[in-house]
Amino acid sequence: MRTTLLRRLHSQSPSAIAMRGVHHNRLSRTSSSSRSSSSSLIQHNQNNYNNHEISDLIHEYASKKQTTISLKDMMLMNSVSDTDHYQAREKRVLREQMLMQMATMLQEELPIRLAHRIQDLDSLAVLQEMPSVQQVRSTYLSSFLDLLDQPKPSSPQAEQDFGRLLQNLYQNHSNVLRQMARGVLELRFQQVQQQYPVMPLDHDHGLSMVDEAFLDRFYMSRVGIRVLAGQYLALRHQLLNDPLGKSIPKEYVGMINRKTSPSRVVQRAIEDATLLCHQQFGPGQAPKVQVSGKMQLTFCYIPTHLHYILLELIKNSMRATMEYHKDSEEKPPIRVVIADGTENEDVIIKVSDQGGGIPRSEMSKIWSYLFTTASPKVQQEFFNATKQLNGAIENGSVLAGLGYGLPLSRAYSRYFGGDLDLMSMEGYGTDAFCHLVRLADKAPLPV
């Protein structure tokens, strides 16, 4: 059985951490201070290593097993803050030790996960040649080498330095989702132009040369990497009780809300989807949404993940309803049902619409990252817009209609052991079922 990250974390005392050497003599180089951009990071790292060394390091770390962690493990990471019987000085020392242990665990685990993804990218037959995918690889390689270069977080100061580095890397990776989507579009454009040089881009054009399993694996891993890094960074603010940490509600342990309210998340998703619907169809133009079921239910989850999923489902239902009933004065409402019971292993949220449904011939394509209902104009606008856009794309709105919403939502659902299913009746509507596993606190999470 593989050792969990939590066992690894608790097995390392601060004194043991301090006594540990670097991975390898060639990794003892001290990294430079904060870099302003990913390009400068890449240049710095390439100056430190030659291509042969980089290749050997990737192979070395990609040959190591990625380590699992559960939601329960992530919750226990903040156990120090719940110890009221310690004096203030003892609490401070314990928090510093916990942060050093967490940072050490991440410095060991993240390079392994990044190396696996770099190796996956290198194995792609065609997609790896796209410029945007090359940028993604450079981002992953830069982060991989920076983590190896960083001195061990064996003191409070070294842990602070590691925290600053990881914050920068976390921000640098915020564009990966958009870059990979752009890479798929680059390949889509290239393939269509080669086959149909005088025809416009067909919105139903697939890409048989790209492995869907790779994209599923890549995005699932990306979720895992960002959860691990984001959880540590959020816990740092809480454990250090800095201004940002003080603003985090007490129900939160890092990114995780111990009392996530599905009904509240649903309401926020409805508000955001309604705003998007108004932008697309005009002011005041959006179907009503009726919410029923276990309105008082709370459970342990990451609210931002649940919001992403529900926003995608409700947004899709609103668009389908508006388009299918475009000539009707009154639009049929969308219905959201929150189901739970003491004997249920899942919390289930159903989103139902009367938006005309999906043809049976299309159902096998809806989970593909390569299938899109977006028009050639929308795809071209996205392709052009990504040249100027900066910042995160975690809300997914910029990717609307480009085939990423549903498969990414399913990746978020599955990460904590749940799932996302659709049932459709062509000529009537679609039911989407979001399963959120209550036992996810015990189950190991994907790597």
Automatic annotation (TrEMBL):
CDD domains: HATPase_PDK-like. Residues 28-40 have a biased composition (Low complexity). Its EC number is 2.7.11.-. It is an enzyme of class 2 (transferase). Residues 1-10 have a biased composition (Basic residues). It catalyses: L-seryl-[pyruvate dehydrogenase E1 alpha subunit] + ATP = O-phospho-L-seryl-[pyruvate dehydrogenase E1 alpha subunit] + ADP + H(+). Signal peptide: none annotated. One of its GO terms (molecular function) is pyruvate dehydrogenase (acetyl-transferring) kinase activity. It is found in: Mitochondrion matrix. One of its GO terms (biological process) is regulation of glucose metabolic process. Residues 1-43 are annotated as: Disordered. Belongs to the PDK/BCKDK protein kinase family. The keyword ATP-binding applies. This is Protein-serine/threonine kinase. SMART domains: HATPase_c. Keywords: ATP-binding, Kinase, Mitochondrion, Nucleotide-binding, Transferase. GO terms for cellular component: mitochondrial matrix. Residues 303-430 form the Histidine kinase domain.
